[in-house]
Design goal:
Distance between the termini: 78 Å
Helix content: 40-55%
Number of domains: 3
Strand content: 5-15%
Strand order of the largest sheet: 3-2-1-4-5-6-7
Largest sheet: 7 strands, mixed
Bound molecules: 6-phosphogluconic acid
CATH class of the largest domain: Mainly Alpha
Number of helices: 19
Structural class: alpha/beta
Number of strands: 12
Shape: globular
CATH topology of the largest domain: N-(1-d-carboxylethyl)-l-norvaline Dehydrogenase, domain 2
CATH superfamily of the largest domain: N-(1-d-carboxylethyl)-l-norvaline Dehydrogenase, domain 2
């Protein structure tokens, strides 16, 4: 065969990626479980480039140049395993299987190991940017063996979004690293969407600004350091009038947020690797709470607000809007800080060499969280350097231990802090839930605290379970004989 790449799974993401490859001059072999989609794609878009329509995986594989590159774009989970099982017997040593779906990184680790044992390369690739990104240039986060990047990297870089002449695509690390980075992207996406939602709620319920007027506020914010795709589309959504009712569309949409799993995985992994991704987790919980329809119905009738219900006075409205903007920015920075921090923790856990500067560079365009801010974050982490591969589990030299320690962000948060505290206070007084604004602020205050009540928790643990504690003034571990004479003993039970 002579085709450059095969794509199996031609739902909208797969079809658009296939078209993107073809539009960039590659010959693309196509396969779908039901032949109809394949023929439809060729009928509608055949003029965009070179396609080879095939009716079976055998035919697909036979149409490919060696080493064969097969990209799978099917629903994450069992369907991916099913395709791999059918594909593997048809492939030869050195061939490359690419999974471009939102697979769980543990699945990717398992599949990579299984295929490596058979001499095949398995490349788990995170792809972000939705349907349009897939067609016109997504952000691409490839993992898998470094060697296989030589065979697939150039093609992926060519179809990726370009930012300032650099592709939003670079090898991020071995086995599941690509899917992990995509997962964290989605966790940040959840938090970013939630903080925008909280800002919207405050503007409406505390400042009394109606959706159409809010659209103008978000447009204005999009010309500040908040400038981003998500702010831009927020204005679009808020501006939309429902044709059927004449009301703002936002008021017609059921307020129960769906989720397909990647945000939840991020929160779970944060717990697993011991990274405090509370703002991200809160954004997942906020979606879960929104979807508890029955509980909410009862709560609406039963649970009182306990507030006076005073909104902001006309004279204070402008200041409040600016406060919300600053609180949104500070909370968003915390979500990024938590996401990047969890990448470092995962690198240590899974032995990955993750370069946070390069990873941030991939998110500058093409993906859902694309924003001017990402270029600043990239710079704070030493810029993009696709040859910089820190020792597995360590961060690259000179990179800050936390995003908030980069001087420009330390300053930005300090500037936003008075507004941030005012907004969280006002939200709590008004009974408007701001789980991510407030959780992000708690993270910030937790980090900077001189002393945390963790000391008391250690005391309690020692009391009920003799779990011991460390002292601030001496090495070693200690235990107080709580049920005896309350003297202190060392780790060996010897009185000190
Ligand atoms: C992206 C999106 C994409 C998809 C998610 C949304 O980066 O292009 O994140 O992967 O829209 O599945 O996730 P939820 O359905 O969980 O909101």
């Amino acid at each position: 065969g002579t085709a450059d790449i095969g794509v199996t799974g031609l739902a909208v993401m797969g079809a658009n990626l296939a078209r993107n490859f073809a539009r960039n001059g590659y010959t693309v072999a196509l396969h779908n479980r039901s032949r109809g989609r394949t023929d439809q794609l060729v009928a509608e878009h055949g003029h965009e480039g070179e396609f080879v329509a095939t009716g079976s995986l055998e035919e697909l594989v036979a149409s490919l140049a060696v080493p064969r590159r097969v990209l799978i774009m099917v629903k994450a989970g069992a369907p991916v395993d099913a395709v791999i099982d059918q594909l593997v017997p048809l492939l030869e040593e050195g061939d490359i299987v690419i999974d471009a779906g939102n697979s769980h990184y543990e699945d990717t680790r398992r599949r990579e190991a299984a295929l490596a044992a058979q001499g095949l390369h398995f490349v788990g690739v995170g792809v972000s940017g939705g349907e349009e990104g897939a067609l016109n240039g997504p952000a691409i986060m490839p993992g898998g063996p470094k060697e296989s990047y030589a065979a697939v990297g150039p093609m992926l870089e060519r179809i990726a979004a370009q930012y300032g002449g650099e592709p939003c695509c670079a090898w991020v690390g071995t086995d599941g690293a690509g899917h992990y980075v995509k997962m964290v992207h989605n966790g940040i996406e959840y938090a970013d969407m939630q903080v925008i939602g909280e800002a919207h709620d405050l503007l409406r319920r505390v400042a009394g600004i109606e959706p159409a007027a809010q659209a103008a506020v978000f447009d204005a914010w999009n010309r500040t350091e908040l400038s981003s795709y998500l702010i831009e589309i927020t204005a679009e959504v808020l501006r939309q009038t429902d044709a059927a009712t004449g009301r703002p569309l936002i008021d017609v949409i059921v307020d129960e947020a769906g989720q397909k799993g990647t945000g939840r995985w991020t929160a779970i992994s944060g717990l697993d690797v011991g990274a405090p991704v509370a703002a991200i987790a809160e954004s997942v919980f906020a979606r879960s709470l929104s979807s508890q329809r029955e509980v909410r119905e009862i709560a609406r009738e039963t649970l009182v607000a306990g507030v006076d219900g005073a909104g902001v006075a006309d004279a204070d409205r402008e200041q409040f809007v600016e406060d919300v903007r600053q609180a949104l920015f500070a909370s968003k920075l915390v979500a990024y800080a938590q996401g990047l921090d969890m990448l470092s923790a995962a690198a240590a856990e899974y032995g990955w060499s993750l370069d946070l500067g390069t990873i941030a560079s991939l998110w500058r365009d093409g993906c859902i969280i694309r924003a001017d801010l990402l270029d600043v974050i990239m710079t704070a982490f030493g810029g993009r350097d696709t040859d910089r591969h820190p020792e597995p589990g360590t961060r690259a030299e000179g990179q800050p231990l936390n995003l908030l320690f980069a001087p420009e962000f330390t300053r930005a948060i300090a500037d936003a802090l008075p507004a941030w505290r005012r907004v969280v206070g006002a939200a709590i007084s008004a009974g408007v839930p701001v789980p991510v604004f407030s959780s992000a602020l708690a993270y910030y205050d937790g980090l900077r605290a001189d002393r945390l009540p963790a000391a008391l928790i250690q005391g309690q643990r020692d009391f009920f379970g003799a779990h011991t504690y460390r002292r601030t003034d001496r090495e070693g571990s200690f235990h107080t004989l709580w049920s005896g004479d309350r003297t202190e003993v060392d780790g060996d039970g010897v009185p000190v």
